[in-house]
Amino acid sequence: MASSVPSIPISPDYPAEIAVAAVPDDPRVWVPQAPSVWFRPLMFNTVAGGWCNLLKVTTTGIVSRHRHPGAVFGYVISGKWKYDEHDWTAEAGSFVYEPPGEIHTLRVPPESSEMVTFFNISGAMVYVDEEGRQTGYEDAFTKIQLCRDYYDSNGLGASYVDQFIR
Hints:
This protein is mostly beta strands and about 170 residues long. The chain has one helix at about 140-155, and strands at about 30-35, 35-45, 50-55, 60-65, 70-80, 80-85, 90, 95-100, 105-110, 115-120, 125-130, 135-140.
């Protein structure tokens, strides 16, 4: 049966869709961020300044203390983690909402030697010390450059990251 829905032309300037395997077959796609911490880029939104990625941590302990100027949404795929500032633990299947401005210290507990979480991050990540003073930051553009440098060095090529940029 033919569809009666009219075809609507799409502008050639319209951003392309992204459909990739979230967990890649090629381990070189995972970009090292810190010791035992990697991210797998899924999309960089250069207009709104956010990004989507998988975060993989393969050891227990503190990953980072940080805050975000925008909202963050997460979904735990495997393992578990928590924030020292809260009494909940995010486990496989958990949805997490992080409000803008809150400082939190991400920790992977001893009973979870690895975790993988999908994050949709609006804005930046601002790293802070124990007194809340800024020690660093990441945004969509610094993440893109980190990917370019890493992919250039591992044989995928600097332009490999371009497929994730919108």
